[in-house]
Design a protein that fits this description.
Number of domains: 3
Structural class: mainly alpha
Number of helices: 16
Distance between the termini: 16 Å
Largest sheet: none
Order of helices and strands: HHHHHHHHHHHHHHHH
CATH class of the largest domain: Mainly Alpha
Helix content: over 70%
CATH superfamily of the largest domain: MFS general substrate transporter like domains
Strand content: under 5%
Radius of gyration: 21 Å
Shape: globular
């Protein structure tokens, strides 16, 4: 296929990107709706969390199929299927009169997103001129990065003025536009289909791995009261992961070619990518609660305080990609890593007195780092692989992102809950400040690990000519 940067390519990237954007927007906007949904459907917090967990779980399970789907179906068929699923899920959620149907709608949306997100990056990797890959990967990252910045504000405005159902109703026309854009711009490519057999054993074992791990980490906060609710699903996840690895190394057509992990720089890059994703999600959990519990402000205010930083990170993604195209990955990635460390240190130093101004500034610094790091890390790491391994590398990165989304918040939440339980403070505010301090320290530690991995991964990185 001829690599050409034209309006059709840009349109196809935005079409697939809009679906990813919509999924993350609903996920982050939905967090604001939890109290309302708990009241409307008479469910508790653990139950309402399945709005997010169900979506991430299904998306995580579908993403390992990306390499198989890419080989066996045209990009257009995959996109139309994904968009149709997503629209059906939105309609179900918009009219749901029972909580189970609300979760069902999110699960169906997760299936659509699980197909669409890897598809967007596959289109970029396959069709973009080699000297523009960094820029286009940055644009793809930007599309999805804008959603977490807008989500809390969008959710707060809609819930406070029209009601939670309109979060889904407003997204339906966006998805219809995405579908029409995709039909017009994504090539059929029917002649390139190879019709390989699905690695059923591999799919079942990796699906059970994700189910086990996600159930385990969703119960991490209650490990002291109900240890088996964490230990048993974790054991299932570990056993199934071992089965998946052994099977994949001994079959001719594995679901995902995990031998790419033999490439040290790829492994370092994807591990750092996972860590920085947990960092971002951890902050998006700690800061809104800090604003409400410690500073006694509203959820709407919390969303607005994080909006600036989120937009800064999103805008920097394509700029960082262009820097990669011109100067290689090391300079933009390590510059971003420096901002991440500075942001982490500032949170730790001022954890007991985070005013609105400090939160805006510190979050903007952190998201500058994220904008420079995330897209370029993915581009540079996949660039270490042979071209025939790109689809596997892309699928693994998207799996890492979704898995971090599923477990990252649970880990931070559990750590903070332990600290609150052991705190000697008498007030809720004092307990939360201590918990936030420990949460910030944990985040800084993993960021330092991630920065070290990026320092090693970007040494003498090869670029595709």
């Amino acid at each position: 296929m001829q690599r050409k940067l034209d309006a059709k390519l840009i349109c196809s990237i935005f079409a697939a990107g809009l679906m990813s954007f919509s999924g993350v927007l609903i996920e982050t906007a939905g967090n604001v709706t939890f109290p309302v949904l708990m009241n409307d459907f008479h469910v508790n917090m653990a139950t309402v969390q399945w709005m997010t967990t169900g979506y991430l779980l299904v998306a995580s399970i579908i993403m390992p199929l990306s390499a198989y789907l890419k080989r066996n179906f045209s990009s257009r068929k995959l996109f139309v299927t994904a968009a149709t699923l997503f629209i059906c899920g939105l309609v179900i959620d918009a009219v749901a009169n029972q909580f189970i149907f609300l979760v069902l709608g999110r699960v169906i949306q997760g299936a659509g997103a699980g197909i669409a997100i890897p598809l967007m990056f596959n289109i970029i990797l396959e069709r973009t001129p080699l000297d523009k890959i960094g820029l286009l990967m940055g644009i793809g990252t930007m599309i999805t990065a804008v959603a977490p910045a807008l989500g809390p504000t969008f959710g707060g405005l809609v819930v406070n003025t029209l009601g939670w159902r309109y979060i889904f109703i407003f997204i339906i026309p966006v998805m219809i536009i995405s579908l029409l854009m995709g039909i017009a711009s994504i090539n059929d490519e029917s002649k390139k289909i190879s019709h390989t057999q699905l690695d059923t054993a591999g799919f079942l074992s990796i699906a059970l791995t994700f189910i086990g791990f996600i159930f385990a980490f969703s119960n991490l906060s209650t490990i002291l009261q109900k240890p088996l609710m964490f230990i048993l699903p974790l054991a299932v996840g570990v056993i199934c992961l071992i089965i998946f690895i052994k099977h994949s190394l001994n079959t001719a057509t594995p679901l995902i070619n995990i031998r790419v992990f033999k490439n040290t720089k790829f492994t370092q890059g994807i591990t750092a990518y996972f860590i920085f994703q947990v960092n971002t999600l951890g902050l998006s959990f700690i800061l809104p609660n800090y604003v409400q519990i410690v500073n006694h402000s509203t959820a709407m205010t919390a969303g607005l305080l994080l909006l600036t930083g989120g937009l800064v990170g999103a805008v920097l993604s394509p700029i960082s990609g262009r820097l990669l195209d011109n100067y290689g990955p090391r300079k933009p990635i390590m510059t971003g890593a420096f901002f991440e460390i500075i942001g982490g240190i500032l949170y730790c130093l001022f954890a007991s007195s985070l005013s609105s101004g400090k939160i805006i500034l510190f979050y903007a610094i952190t998201m500058m780092g994220i904008g420079l790091v995330m897209g370029d890390t993915m581009t540079a790491s996949i660039g270490q692989l042979d071209e025939k391994e790109n689809t596997d590398g892309n699928g693994l990165f998207n799996m890492a992102q979704q898995f971090a989304g599923a477990v990252g918040t649970a880990i931070i939440s559990a750590i903070m809950q332990f600290v609150e339980q052991m705190s000697s403070q008498s007030s809720t505010t004092g307990k939360y400040i201590e918990a936030a301090q420990v949460g910030f320290i944990f985040i800084l530690i993993i960021v330092l690990v991630g920065v070290y991995l990026l320092y090693q991964a970007t040494k003498s990185v090869k670029t595709k000519e």
